[in-house]
Amino acid sequence: MKKNNSCDLKTCFMCQLTLKEWHPAIEGHKRNFIAKKGEVIIKEGDPVSGVYFVTSGNVKVHKQWGDKELILRFANDGAIIGHRGISSNTSTYPISATALETTKLCFVDIEFFKTTIKVNQEFAYGLLIFYADELHASEKKMRNLALMSVKGRLAVAILGLRDQFGLDEEGFLNLALSRQDLAAFTGATYETVFRTMNELLAEKLVVVNGKQIGILNEGGLMDLSSK
Fold first, then answer.
1. Beta strand segments in the chain, E
2. Residue 63, strand partner residues
3. Which residue from 66, 110, 165, 204 puts its CA 20 to 30 A from 45's CA?
4. In this predicted model, what pLDDT tens digit does every residue of 13-41 receive, in sequence order?
């Protein structure tokens, strides 16, 4: 990753919730980087060194599930990645993180991050809620993998990405996503996702332009996501 000095101490999750008096300490400990599209930021199994905050850009957080990749979530502006490495019984990252586009990141080492939690009550509380929300989302995703059809999981994924990334002026998701990544995010094979997306297209629920997905019938997708 290429070093980068741009950081306004306002964008990321940590800076938003820490005391202003703590910002000089963050300024002294942070390191800023730029990751190119496709560059691995964190590799599953590597020793935990610290956590990253996405200043701008998009990152997929993923892990190996047997011989397949499973995308757990996507992280964009202000989001934290690498926090799963904080544990009482492991010292390695349980996930990988890869840039989906040119992405600006802020890194702080693990000891300073832990000190920041201890010193800043609002940040500690915000991190607790974040962990709780992430656990809830993970449990819901596991339920969907076990009980929901691929078409339903695709509908959930498209609506969720719409809520997270929004739509551009032409009504497409503000996230260019390959079919392979969409398959990894929904826990299905590439072939199944390709076939199911064609069904959604035929039913005029979505429209596709290359790697961009647009929503034509939100109600229809919501019906599928509730089955």
1. 2-3, 31-35, 40-42, 50-56, 59-65, 68-75, 80-81, 96-99, 103-109, 206-209, 212-215
2. 70
3. 165
4. 888 899 999 999 999 999 999 999 999 99
